[in-house]
Each structure stands twice: as C-alpha cells, then as structure tokens.
Amino acid sequence: MKETILVTGGTGFIGSHTTVELQNAGYEVVIVDNLSNSSADVIDGIEKITGIRPAFEQVDLRDFDATENVFKKYPAIKGIIHFAASKAVGESVEKPLLYYRNNLVSLINLLELMPKYDVKGIIFSSSCTVYGQPTAENLPVTEAAPIQKALSPYGNTKQINEEIIQDYIHSGANIKSIILRYFNPIGAHPTAFIGELPNGVPMNLIPFVTQTAIGIRKELKIFGNDYNTADGTCIRDYIYVVDLAKAHVKAMERVLEKDTDPVEVFNIGTGTGLSTLEVIQGFEKATGVKLPWSYAPRREGDIEKVWGNVDKANNVLGWKADTPIEDVLASAWKWQCSLRERGIM
Ligand code: UD1
After folding, report:
1. Residue 74 a catalytic site member
2. Of 27, 99, 131, 154, which one is the catalytic site residue?
3. CB count, 10 Å around CB of 84?
4. How high is the pLDDT of residue 287?
C-alpha cells in the first residue's frame, strides 16, 4: 500500500473519479466533503468499482478545527488533492462572498495545517478559465500564456488560489504543490457507477446534451453560431474525466517522490479543440441517439475558442489523454441511462 491521500471534494464529479484511480494505483484515500453538492452514495459507487471503501469524513473545510481533526485522526496523510470548491459561474456572480469564503478559506486552512501534520504535497484543481480568451498566437494555450482578469468571482478564486499557493511556498513553507489547469472535463466512469450529477438545469454542455437525449430537456440550445470559428460555434478542449483523474495520480507521484520545483503548473487537456456542433455530431454518432437542438443567441461571458498545448503534461508529467471522444461521449450517455434505470433522473 502506498501513501495516504486526502481527497477534498472526493464525492464530487472529478474527486470521485480521482479516488478510483488513486485506489487502483495502490494509494489509501481519505475523502472529505461537506456534501453541499454531492451525495454520500457516491462512496458506494467507488467501492463497487475498486472493491475498496475509502474513508469518509463529512467536514466543511471552512471550519478550521474540524479540518484539523481530520489530520489528527489520519496521521498517515502525506498528500492532498484539493477539489472541494463552489463551481457555478452564474451563482458566483450573485453570491461572491460565498465563493470567496468557501474557495479561499478552505485552501488557506489546508495550507496552514500541512506543515504541522507533515503533509508534503498538494495538488490544486485550477482551470483554463485563468487564460480568458487567449490571443490567436497563444492558441493552443501554454502554461506561459498571460493570465487575464477573471470574468467571474468563481474564476477569480482559481487565480487567487494559485497565487496563495505560490506566495506560501515562496515564503519558505516546507511543502510542494502541483497546480493542474483543466480544460473541460466530461464523461463518466465506463462502469457507469459514478459520473456527473448536476443540480437542477445543467449549465455545462454535456449534461445538457445527455438530459436532452433522454427527454428531461426538450431541446439543446447552441449558444451562438456567429463566432469566428469554422462552423461558427465555440471551441473547447473536452477532456475525459477518467484521463483527467489519472493525471492526478501522476501529479501525486511526482510531488511526493521526485525532486522537482516546489510549485509546478500543468495544463490538462487533450490538445485538440472541438466545436459545440462537432460534439453534438460526435454524440449522435457514438450513441445512435438523435439530439433535438437549435441555435440561440450567444451566452454572456462565453469564451470563443480555447484549447490547450499539453506538451508539458505529456513530456514532464508523463501523462497523455488517450480515450477517443466517441468512447467519452458514449460513457456520458451510459451514465445518463443508468440514472434513469435507478430512478434518479
Ligand atoms: C464553464 C465555465 C468555466 C468552468 C467550466 C467547467 C462559464 C462561462 N464557464 O466553461 O468557468 O471552468 O465550465 O467545466 O460558464 N453550450 C451550449 N449550450 C448549452 C451549454 C453549453 O451551446 O446548453 C456551449 C457553450 O456556449 C460553450 C460550450 O458549450 O461554448 C461549453 O460550455 P460549458 O460546458 O458550459 O463550459 P465552458 O463555458 O467552457
């Protein structure tokens, strides 16, 4: 058995898939989640896949004492993967203080506790949102591209948290960190025992696609067909959540075992941009399901096109996204069908 890893937000979408991959790689996992946007049932799904039930503590990371008690209870924790955060862009505009308190205080509490409990490394979930709309010469976007002013409090918390980590390590704190900037995570575990469970009407493309395909939503609206792209719809770098989860295992190995810079940043994507229209066509091809859709006006705040240069992750981290998009889209559909079979949606 390898080291014990604390996965915050471990019952969430990316956290649950990462827990599975950590356990498959031999790590022991302790999940902390306040269940504000997920359910403890997810732990059953993780156990069904791996045969191992991760330890679980329902804790709110804003609560310093409760967080400290986790480190007291599990003194073997050597690394943290920090997913727990509020993530709805629109809600963050309406409730900025909720976002700033939740996303910033949680990280600060963890960082403060790390040296005291001899926790060596923290992997932080950041986002390509920090790049805003890269200029044409900066596409595909590398880690060296300029950070642009965030378009929402949510995006701003990602930028500020990256700076907090940099500043803390610069001050001499004896910890290491890897910051992973994700592009657009999609799909579900191939078993369909875990996946993405959005609250209410989905804001993200793929959950809206699968909910429309199964009849929960009448029609998908493509936001804008007059963008400066080949087919006029926006372009994103859609990364399979299982591939993304595996990047965390690589990052954890690196931060704990290798002699590296104390803070490193990696883009985590496929390196390929797909338009919204291409995703819809890909979904229909992968599943054989016809999707009702129409064009609608642009969505405020949307980026026209962004995809990643992922050479650094490929060459330095030794990780590559390798799941074909058809399989990824089929996994999302299988998950949606399993929710229906289980009477959840
Ligand atoms: C969104 C967030 C981003 C966050 C990311 C996490 C916004 C503005 N940005 O990114 O901060 O890090 O999710 O995954 O919300 N689309 C439609 N119809 C729909 C839904 C989406 O056409 O019903 C289009 C969007 O216009 C966009 C693409 O699909 O071009 C992807 O949208 P989405 O899944 O919401 O992701 P992002 O906007 O890239």
Report:
1. no
2. 154
3. 30
4. 98
